[in-house]
Amino acid sequence: MARRRGPGVMAIVGLLLVALLALVMPLPGLVAPLRPDFVALVVLWLCLLSPRPTGLVVAFLAGLAVDAVHGMVLGQHALAFCLIAYIALKLRLRIRAFPLLQQSAVVFALLALAEFMAFWIDGVTGHAVTEWTRWLGVLVGAACWPLLAGLLERYLPRS
Amino acid sequence: MSPIQDQDHRNLLLEGPSLGLRLAILSILAIALMVADHRGRYLEALRGALAAAAYPVHRAVDAPFAAWKSLGGEMKSRATLQAENVELQAENLALKLRLMRFEALEEENRRLRGAREGSARVVQRSLVAEIMKVDLDPFRQRVLVNKGARDGVHAGQAALDANGIFGQVTRVGPLSAEIIMISDPEHAIPVTVNRTGVRTIAVGTGRPDRLTLPYLARNADLEEGDLIVTSGLGGVFPPGYPVARVVDVTRDPAQPLLQVAAEPLAALDRDPEVLLVWFERTIVEPEPEPEAAAPPPAPLTSPTPAPAPAAPPTSETATTAGETRAQPAAPAGEDP
Description:
Radius of gyration of chain A: 15 Å
Oligomer: heterodimer
Mean pLDDT of chain B: 76
Number of helices of chain A: 7
Largest interface: A-B, 49 and 53 residues
């Protein structure tokens, strides 16, 4: 095999930190619900990039960080991110062969799954947010995917 | 399907347990965390540590805004400052005049109430906390402030602004604390109508400019413009502080209860800072009411240094001392 070097640990941590910052950056009220889950996007990208099963651990820790920063029930996003990271790792080779648009569709499904898990756990723990606008972030996230994938590809080449 | 998976497995075999096993382990771990955090609240220490770890992130996001504000402060022109000064002096004088009257009234009140201890529960100590410019969740009415356990802030503490009740502290980190506003749909605050003395509960709606009073009978005496103040039941909020003003009363003959909209007096979405208050907690036990039959037994003696003395049945059946999910005992139940 050719040398396979993904982004280093520092790059991953830095990327996740930036995503976390973007997640709590104050936005004007109307735009706020449109904010995609940047951390989920980065986790997905990392999982598609490298087959290392440590992707799951990274997803778990990233989810925990999101919970800590948002002050939600601990483990909520950890579980959701683990699940989508697992699916992304399993289908990695196929997804990577897709054209960008189709990739976006897959990302849409995965983000929706993660959001649904969060929604579900919200409901179970009695904090249900039933407003439909919470799903807009999923849509925006999927729409962002080609841009994000292109950018990351460019600055963190995968081989 | 299989060739791709085979290849995956070849990659995975190099490093420890398989993907599925890892997922199972991590999922169980996550679920265990959630249960421990939500049900048992065993993780207060971990929570504190995580809040401390999250603080730099919050701080980093907040920093540009704070810098801009301080820059604005430095750049203010002399004329503006002078004008502001004059205005503040006038306001100070007016407030002093009112305070004089207030002290006389307080003294009189104490005399009139006689030896009924604890009836004059007034704020003893307060601490100004700045609201950090951090979006916690657009769907929840919560904010983060820059004071935490190191400043003596504790969960369940009341927060006010200059005009009224703002909310209460839900979580405390070493340097920051999360406050749930009275307008959060999960928040309910025991109140009384100032004009008539009717006691009820004001529940948040999710909009910063609306509260509802969902548990008043259709024939209750309530008018637009009525002032709603804290009743002090539940022990979280000091009594007698303004909460909201009634803006709309709908008497729908088809509904057994009144539909009341009230506007919070605190500027929930505009405040740059809030006041965290400590007040005397020697409380006169509110007269026990019949439906005291099912108090939540265990959680009330939670190890957190939170206040909530035995909550009266009509106000908050605080699931844990520090928890804020004040759920009214009234039958009308959940919000839609």
